[in-house]
Amino acid sequence: MDTDHLNHSTWDCKYHVVFTSKYRTKRLYGELRRELKDRFVTLALQKSCLIEEVELMPDHVHMLISIPPKYSVSHIVGFLKGKTSLYVANKYAKKRRYKGYHFWARGYFVSTTGY
């Protein structure tokens, strides 16, 4: 069994997370898709999380992420969505007519996994 360790705990917490682009518009394609995949991995490592798998569809994202118990799922998902939204707005705002920092929709789906 793959487990991770903190000072006072041993854990194996994996979550299936899905979130969509604003209005489910098909925005995730080409160069942006490749860059966001790398950006998700580097941002997760900043919070000592590990993205096991990530799949970017044209209008939504599926990821299997391992989150340590010291962080809540909502904190990590908010961090990932917020930082990638800022990145997209700063890099692609003039090319693709994005309005402000509103790239992702407000909610997300999360489910625990048992493997």
From TrEMBL:
GO biological process per UniProt: DNA transposition
SUPFAM superfamilies, alphabetized: Transposase IS200-like
Pfam families, per the entry: Y1_Tnp
TM region(s), chain numbering: none
One GO MF term attached to the UniProt entry: transposase activity
Transposase IS200-like domain: residues covered: 10-114
Alphabetized Gene3D superfamilies for the sequence: Transposase IS200-like
Annotated PANTHER family: TRANSPOSASE FOR INSERTION SEQUENCE ELEMENT IS200
NCBIfam families (alphabetical): transpos_IS200 (NF033573)
Full protein name: Putative transposase
Protein species of origin: Pseudovibrio denitrificans
